[in-house]
Design a protein that fits this description.
Strand order of the largest sheet: 1-11-10-9-12-13
Number of helices: 17
Number of strands: 14
Oligomer: single chain
Structural class: alpha/beta
Length: 432
Amino acid sequence: MKYILDTKKSNFQKEFSRALNSKRQQSNANRSIVLKIINDVKRNGDQSLIRYSKKFDKIDLNRNSIQISKKEIIAITSKLDPKIKKAINLAYSRVKSFHLKQVNSSFKFKDKFGNQLGYKYTPINKVGIYIPGGKASYPSTVIMNCVPAVVAGVKNIYAVVPTPNNEINAGVIYAAKICGVKKIFRIGGAQAIAALAYGTKTVEQVDKIVGPGNIFVATAKKEVFGQVGIDMIAGPSEITVIAGPENNPKWTALDLLSQAEHDELSQSILITKSAVFANKVVMEIEKEIKNLPRAKIAQASMKNYGTIIVCKNDQEMIEIANKIAPEHLEIKVRNCDAIERKIINAGSIFLGDYSPEAIGDYIAGPNHVLPTSGTARFSSGLSVADFYKKTSVIKCSKSGIQKIGPAAVDLANYEGLQAHALSIMTRINNKK
């Protein structure tokens, strides 16, 4: 573990801030590279996608092969293990069921003066889903990003997925198929984000882009925001676990490792009141980490960003968890419900011994696309609401504007906006 901190130590706050900020310093070093790629795609369209695919993914594409054909999709998915298909189907069903409870309905009503007011929910027309390739190519990413769009009523969903060395994840393609993705393009990186944002002859221009990616993808999403909507600027995965002697140290160690194996930059934090328990967890981490296929990644993550914080009492644990504002927060202690009620900053919360964060990544139901790097202080995970446009609708009656108009006229004059005042006043006086 990189950091083992004790709240009783005089330098705790300084060390705690250092532990958090070690991962949260974002660099702009890649911005110039990303801007060059974006501008290239805007100018040269498909040809730039073909060139970057050869450079970065080592594949030779032409205009006809940028999109994965329906024939290819059938061939790819036919080889997928039926057991995995069944698991993907169950995940899709459970995630969709949860998100159906988030559906909003348009409404309208009349106030006491006869003015009709309302709110209209309209699904976004075209959405692009970025699905990472390489070492982070997951069917669960497809489900979590597509399902809320499907539930919101988005009619046109397109996906981009890099296929390094022409390797295509059959589970990803199958998940995209059952989610009703209209087209899948075998492109990735900043160039794929640019293609979705500005369109090419082959790639559809969309209205919003969602989905995780590396630093180049995240930077590209940030740069095209305004041309299109985006979900969030997500950083590496992170988990905070509140646990103690009543919990199984091996289970706790594996929960911490479940995020460490994602990325060398992932952050895993244990908050506990017991130094003895903390040491047991460290021993279990050292034992279990050796057996992981992604051991090198997990070891780097734990070495550089793994943190244990030993607290005096529950209140300290709560305060620290809220300050971290983690993407994932497990509360495993006996009084987990009481502690949960006092948590105000977390992307997703998992309560009790039998609710590991990993179950939320796949099949529990709530979305696993969550705010990272402390942004849970002001933002939320992906939901159906992210795929609606919300439009207010106002219809004043003649008598209604006569009742509320004079106050608006007073405010307009106070703000020095005479045309505003006259626009309302002519209607109050019924002058044409």
